[in-house]
Amino acid sequence: MSDIDHKPVTTAAARPGVSYIEWGAIFAGAVVAGALTVVLTQFGAGIGLATADPTLEDGLTWGIFLVGLWLVLIPFASASAGGYVAGRMRSHFGDGTADESEFRDGIHGIVVWALATVAMGLAAGFSAAISSAIAPAAADPDVSAEMMQLMHSASTITAFAAGAGAVLGAAGAWFAALAGGNHRDEGIAISAFRGPFFRRTQP
Question: How far from the centroid of its chain's Cα atoms is residue 148's Cα?
Fold first, then answer.
């Protein structure tokens, strides 16, 4: 049996006491994710008001479907953008393997997603508490049984869509952070994604 040469993987020694979590990159990604969430929510509200007719049952059902779809897309797009920013802005220490570096990039994306999710959840809860304190909800005796059933279905759909969107957002943040880290290591400039009309010309 012939001997097989195994080349050892050489990496720099780990530095004890050094945290690999860079909060500057994480907060930057979380701010981007939060801002994009607000913008997409405003767009979603406008689209829903323009396409759904609350006086018709079919229009209301279509509006519920759009809300559920938007609740899935918003956290995915926002967390992906924030994760990419965090992965791209994180420093590459060079004291680990390629897999370890990718793991650190992905963790930064997950922390961005977690921070943005907690912040938006607290903001939504605070807004709901203020709204209920200003205008307490009262039972409307004129609401039909069909409308009550539709409202119950809408609550179920939106809750499920929000949960699915949160899970997809975590996955999107992870893989987007990996992409950002790869672009950082490969030195890919943003000019590679711009058209010729937006590139700076040399004097």
Answer: 32
CB-side neighbour CA atoms (13 Å) of 108: 34
Please tell me what DSSP assigns to residue 127. Answer: H
Cα–Cα distance, 135 to 202 (Å, whole number): 60
Rounded to an integer, what distance in angstroms lies between the CA atom of residue 79 and that of residue 76? 5
Instruction: Give CA torsion, residues 15, 19, 21, 25, to 10 deg.
Output: -80
Among 63, 37, 39, CA closest to 49: 63
Contact (Cβ atoms closer than 8 angstroms) between residue 103 and residue 85: no
* Residue count (the chain): 203
pLDDT tens digits for 112-164?
999 999 988 888 777 777 766 665 544 555 556 666 666 667 777 778 888 88
Task: Give CA–CA dist 192/43, Å, rounded.
Answer: 28
The pair of three-digit structure tokens given for residue 103, joined into one six-digit string = 């793991």
d(CA 113, CA 108): 9
Cα–Cα distance measured from residue 57 to residue 146, given in angstroms and rounded to the nearest whole number: 10
**DSSP letter (8 states) at residue 199:** S
Nearest to 15 by CA among 94, 89, 104: 94
Backbone phi, psi, residue 84, to 5°:
-65, -45
Domain ranges of the chain: 23-125+155-185
Distance, first Cα to last Cα, the chain: 65
CA–CA distance, 164 with 182 (Å, rounded to integer)? 27
Radius of gyration of the chain (CA): 23
